[in-house]
Each structure stands twice: as structure tokens, then as C-alpha cells.
Amino acid sequence: MQQQAIERTDLLQNDVSVPGHEVVQARVDIAPGAVSIKRSHPGEEVAYVLEGLLEYQLEGRQPVTLKTGEALFIPDGVAHLAKNVGTGKASELATYFVRKETLLVVPEK
To answer: CDD domains from the xrefs (predicted)?
Structure first.
């Protein structure tokens, strides 16, 4: 991710009732025009747009643009990226249900 253009703040990390899994929650702030790296996760993600306009590109699907208050489910292992397509800052609440003791973010080519 572009270091100055995208800022991630970890909010929560906790075990869940499924053995070997945990929930991780983070706020991600994205400057206008900024694009994240293409990545995947070792589990599912729910991205909820807190403010702004974000375009999500999931591998094998058409891009989808979400506005404040909308959410997107990202399946386990699906490569994706996010881009701020609005004129101001955009923020998302990212909630991950992932396998423990693995990299949360797996960069993709």
C-alpha cells in the first residue's frame, strides 16, 4: 500500500469459537486517488465503507463501487484491491475472519 496515501489502524484482534481462527478489525483511511496493493487474506473479509466512495476490484469479477454505508463480502483467498474514486478521503471498516498464525495480508502479483 502507498504509505502516506493509505493508513491502517488496527482496532480489534480476538479468538472466536471456531478453533484456529480469529477476528481482526481495522479502520483503513484512503486518500483521494490512492490504490491499495493487490492482495488476499487467509479467510473472509467484510469491507464496510464509513465515508467516501471506494471501488473494489475482486479477481474474476467486475469492479464494484460502494458509497458510505455499503458493504462487500470478500471470500477466502480472493485477490482484490481498493481505490478511492471520490474527491475526498475515504474510510472503510475491514473485518476479517481468518486463520490464526498466518499473514493477514498476502500480496498478489
So the answer is: cupin_BLL4011-like
3-state secondary structure 20-58: CEEEEEEEEEECCCCECCCEECCEEEEEEEEECEEEEEE
CA–CA separation, 85 vs 101, rounded Å? 34
Q: Under DSSP, is residue 103 helix (H, G, I), strand (E, B) or coil?
A: coil
**What angle (nearest 5°) sits at the alpha carbon of residue 100, between those of residues 95 and 51?**
15
Is the domain 6-107 a CATH 2.60.260.20 member?
no
Name the strand (E) or helix (H) holding 59: none
Residues 13-68 pLDDT 10s: 999 999 999 999 999 999 999 999 999 999 999 999 999 999 999 999 999 999 99
